[in-house]
Amino acid sequence: MKLPTAVLAAGAALSLTTAVVGAARLRQNARHxxxxxxALLAGNxxxxxxxxxxxxxxxxxxxxxxxxxxxxxxxxxxxxxxxALSLRHCLGRVRDGQLPFYAAMVMxxxxxxxxxxxxxxxxxxxxxGDERAEHFTRVLDQAAKNxxxxxxxxx
Length: 155
What we know:
This protein is mainly α. It is 79% helix and 0% strand.
């Protein structure tokens, strides 16, 4: 191979490598931007949940008609915990293999099981079309169903 041909081939290989690395970097930046947006939105939601579960007047405005403000505040406190776990899962801080353990821990709380009984179907609808959210919701639903107090009493 002549020197000019070798130089051109090396230059082409370097250009191709640079393009591949650049494309990977762009994908990584886009993923990180999505994670930052997800964290920001979740932070807003957690802030609102913190307010509604600590302010009876605000809870009174947002509660379902058939529920007392105190019960709504308790359920929104459970929702806050579930949302925090969901964010950690979404950001990869809780892996899929760990999620059943965390879900069982969350559902060991009576208030979390009451929240799930009342609003679990709504969360299922919210998750529709988002594979990660659907998986999260299925795992939490299964943990709620598997909790000993959710099992029918033996005859």
